[in-house]
Amino acid sequence: MDNAVTTALAVLEKQLNRPLAAALEVCARCGICAESCHYYVADPKLDHVPAQRAEQLRQVYRRQHDFIGKFFPTWVNAEDLDENKLERLAEIAFSECTLCRRCTFNCPMGVDTPLMMRVIRAMATAAGKAPEILVMLADSAIEKGKDPDMFRAMFKEQIAQMEQELRELTGNPEATIPVEKEGARVLYVALAGAHTILPPAIIFNAVKEDWTLSLYEAANYGVFLGDTARAKAIAGRIIEEAKRLKVEEVVVAECGHACASLVWDAPNWFSETFPFKTRSIVELFAEYIEQGRLHLDPTANPEPITYHDSCNLARTSGIYREPRVILNAVAQNFVEMTPHGLENYCCGGGGGLVALPEYDEKRLRAGKPKADQIKKTGARTVAAACENCRLQLGDLNQYYELSVKVTALADLIVKAMRLPEKIAMSVAAE
Amino acid sequence: MSTTITKPDQVLDLKGLLCPMPIVRLSIAVKKAGVGAVLEGIATDPGVMADVPAWARQSGNELVSIKQQGKEYHFLVKKTK
Q1: Thinking of the domain A134-290, which architecture would CATH place it in?
Q2: Burial classification of residue B6, based on how many CB atoms lie within 10 Å of its CB (0-12 exposed, 13-18 middle, 19 or more buried)
Q3: What tens digit of pLDDT does each residue of B32-62 get?
Q4: CA atoms A318, A114, A67, A26: torsion sign
Q5: Domain of B64?
Q6: Could you report the predicted ipTM of this complex, rounded to two decimals?
Q7: What strand order describes the sheet that includes A333-335?
Q8: Which of A44, A112, A140, A356 has its CA 20 to 30 A from that of A151?
Q9: Which tens digits make up the pLDDT trace of A153-187?
């Protein structure tokens, strides 16, 4: 047995807890999961049935753990893991499943097929069979955490420029984007780039939030690798920063996997109850609206707008009411997709797939159910509270010629705040 | 960071791309390039100012220079292995 196979099998053994063993053993082969998977809906073939994907790992499990599988493997369709099989498993887990969990929600037995896909990802990563790009992105993020002085000065300089832009946009000379402010109530963890910093900054300043911006980005590519050590190192940068600054809560940008990993996975990785709350910025925005702290004009967004539920926000984190609180406050014509919320179809870009150009064609074909859903709404704008989803929706827009605009919730809120008009009115009043 | 090399062998237009795509494109281009090749990247996502130095350290390639020019971010990297 070669090293890669031995390493992969060792990971399988290490991760074989009761939930995984149950997922590997209880499938009734009813096939209900087929129609729940966007890959199958886009292209109905056996390889796209979640149970069939899981069966590839089950064959290996039976060879290792089933009594008959150990001695008479062909009787129970058990199979040895070899390098070819490992590569095929990696291909399935990284490019034919986005870990969206729709199959789990629709399985009468609650079989967690994405859990099995995560384990395959972990096996492949340990064995050096994971996509290089995901490994590079995870390791670059870890490198940033090792030495924040490498970029701290440049980052603060950029934020100072952004602060000027914020002041011009809001007409408020005192509007700020604080960085590393000790004792702030909220530590906001954005993504790389101004588009997830400036709109929330406008909103935070409007409600007079006591906030500070994280040095780090929320994205966690360790999660996509199924690699807890890497995922923990990436999340650890933010957790340490939150402790150092003594904040009350950590608020994660509009990003599905980043929110799910920091809110739900991190406390388990660190076996710790953090001295701060963690939640999505979507929940905080909805809270501001429900508390009447934001003055919004829905006529600023008059066109039909639909909302794509990120799988990590809706199915994993239960955040499907809050986006609708926001949309009903900022849009004049909010139209639901069918299905939506917990039953929403994955856009096809989850699980790190949007960052893997080698799987572009597969990813875009798997996004057909989402493209069809969008078309049926007649919406001209699609909002999504996840960066990966927005990147995928942008690509689907071109590929399927949807002629829609893809936007974040924060952008719609800012538009409904009608900033330039307010500035014009205040100038006229003087 | 050295500043002696200024002429790139390849220019990557990364304008309009959002994180993580500038680093993804850079990484793919560097992989295809020969050892010693110098690549220039031009991006509009300010995230590259932190991400490119981290990528260079992690990948073992040399970041020759990185600077902001108006709304654009220009960097030079040299493939070292």
Answers
A1: 3-Layer(aba) Sandwich (3.40)
A2: exposed
A3: 999 999 999 999 998 898 899 999 999 999 9
A4: positive
A5: 10-78
A6: 0.85
A7: A333-335, A304-308, A381-384, A405-407
A8: A356
A9: 889 999 999 999 999 999 999 999 999 999 999 99
DSSP symbol at A192: S
Which pair of tokens denotes residue B15? Answer: 């304008």
Closest-CA distance, A133 to chain B, in angstroms, reads: 7
Report the DSSP beta bridge partners of residue A280.
A252
Strand duo A381-384 + A333-335: pairing: unpaired
Domain with CATH 3.40.50 in chain A: 134-290, 298-416
- Of B19, B37, B38, B49, the active-site residue reads B19
Pick from A129, A192, A117, A115: nearest CA to A159 = A192
Place of tokens 């794509």: A308
**Nearest CB partner across the interface for A194, out of B21, B46, B55:** B46
Residue B1 domain flag = no
Active site residue B30: no
* Residue A137 phi, psi dihedral angles, 5° rounding: -65, -40
- The CATH topology of domain A3-130 is Fumarate Reductase Iron-sulfur Protein; Chain B, domain 2 (1.10.1060)
